Amino acid sequence: MTFEQIKQILKTKTVGIAGCGGLGSNCAVALARVGVGRLILADFDLVQEGNLNRQFYFYDQIGMLKVAALKQNLFRINPDVRVNTFDIRLCQSDIIEIYSKCDVIVEAFDKPEMKYLILDAVHNYMPDKYLVMGVGMAGWGDNNLIRTRQSDRLIICGDEINAIAAECPPLAPRVGVVANMQANAVLEILLGVNEKQIHSEN
Amino acid sequence: MKIILNNKEEILAAEQLTVNELLKVKKFTFKMLVIKVNGKLIKKSEYDTALVHEGDDVMVLHLISGG
């Protein structure tokens, strides 16, 4: 497919991004660059100085709502992308309401409890939807530990090993790798490659 | 029995195991676990009753912080 053909497909698609920290902000940027039509962003947090070592925000955005700052940054990259923002701490009913019209949902939370919440909500209430999760990206190095695995419509990107700790902080390179792997998995789904694989396996 | 555990073939002495028994045998001790057996999500309340049989495809995912 040429980029023109890719854009024609992607502009009709909607991707939900749950959380706008290191994974969510970088994944949203990649998807806006390639021309995904609509992004639905949710996060309750404000941009802080400590986020700038990995999250797609700028020094002059400190103190802004992450969803507002990210929307601004996405428009600077691609003014044609449509962006819906939700400045809330998501609960199960919010997840179902906000993301039920998405073609794919990207899980980009930091806390494991929230990761479980969205996995459970999608599995029980939106079983036809693809969920692309990020699990394990703290620290540095170990490029080849980072990978993707799939179980039906659940896709997991990350090393599944390195949790955040005082001596193992999340940093731009590894967080960016996983965020872009998630965006890459989203494209695979939206452009039909994943669907084909599933059919051929059956 | 022979099962697929996290995409790898595993041979276990028992003919069947509950999810909890499998977690013990394979030494999964993490708190935030997601278990799928043949694509079906197993709730925590079912770990003592849900069974793993010959040929099952089991996914054990450890949810860790970071995002």
From the structure above, extract its key features:
heterodimer, A: alpha/beta, seven-stranded mixed sheet, disordered C terminus, B: 67 residues, Ubiquitin-like (UB roll), five-stranded mixed sheet, two-stranded antiparallel ribbon, 10% helix
**How many domain units of chain B?**
1
Calculate the mean pLDDT score of chain A and round it: 95
Overall structural class of chain B, as computed from helix and strand content, comes to: mainly beta
Write down the secondary-structure element order of chain B: EEEHEEEE
Strand segment tally of chain A: 7
- Overall form of chain A: globular
Sheet with the most strands, sense and barrel status of chain B: 5 strands, mixed
For the record, the CATH class of chain B is: Alpha Beta
Q: What is the second-level CATH architecture of chain A?
A: 3-Layer(aba) Sandwich
CATH architecture assignment name of chain B: Roll
Describe the structure.
In chain A, 41% of the residues lie in helices and 17% in strands. With 202 residues, chain A is α/β, with parallel strands linked by helices. Chain A has a single domain (10-201), classed as Rossmann fold, CATH 3.40.50.720. In chain A, strand 1 (14-18), helix 2 (22-34) and strand 2 form a beta-alpha-beta unit. The model of chain A is unreliable at 196-202 (pLDDT under 50). Chain B has one domain: Beta-grasp domain (Ubiquitin-like (UB roll)), CATH 3.10.20.30. Chain B has one helix and seven strands. Chain B has a five-stranded mixed β-sheet, with no helix packed on it. A two-stranded antiparallel ribbon of chain B has the order 3-6.
